[in-house]
Amino acid sequence: MTDILEMNLPVSDNQMEIILRLHRLFLDIPGIECKKRFKIPFYYRHSWVAYLNPIKKDGIELCFLKGLEMSNHDGRLQSKDRKMVAGISIYSPAEIGQDSILDHFHEALILDEEKL
């Protein structure tokens, strides 16, 4: 397991708090691994599932590789003109809403399983 604090991510304190909360949520799921790629955390099971990307206005975007294939039941996923990836922009730790985030993450894991 990668220690998120040892990654020395170039982020603000607010962004780090968001990353830490999401990181803990994801690593509580069996089989999830975190690796640093392109100076940001990527989450894998069988393949790349999601990553946390610092964005302007002191936020973090939780991006899903197969985001455009996901149901987007709550309308939070935004593609931003990307062909595969869709993400959720988070600007405060209070916005995370564990149930919604975990619902999206579990859906991404189902898509990851289908790849096998």
Verbal overview:
The protein is built from 2 helices and 5 strands. It has one domain: Aspartate Aminotransferase, domain 1. The chain is of the alpha+beta class and 116 residues long. A 5-stranded antiparallel sheet has the order 1-2-3-4-5. The protein has helices at 13-27, 98-114, and strands at 33-37, 40-44, 48-55, 59-64, 86-90. The protein is globular and about 35 Å long.
Kindly provide the radius of gyration, computed on alpha-carbon positions and rounded to a whole number of angstroms: 13 Å
> In which order are the strands of the major sheet placed?
1-2-3-4-5
**Number of alpha- plus pi-helical segments:** 2
Task: Give the mean pLDDT.
Answer: 92
Backbone structural class? alpha+beta
CATH class: Alpha Beta
The name CATH uses for the topology is: Aspartate Aminotransferase, domain 1
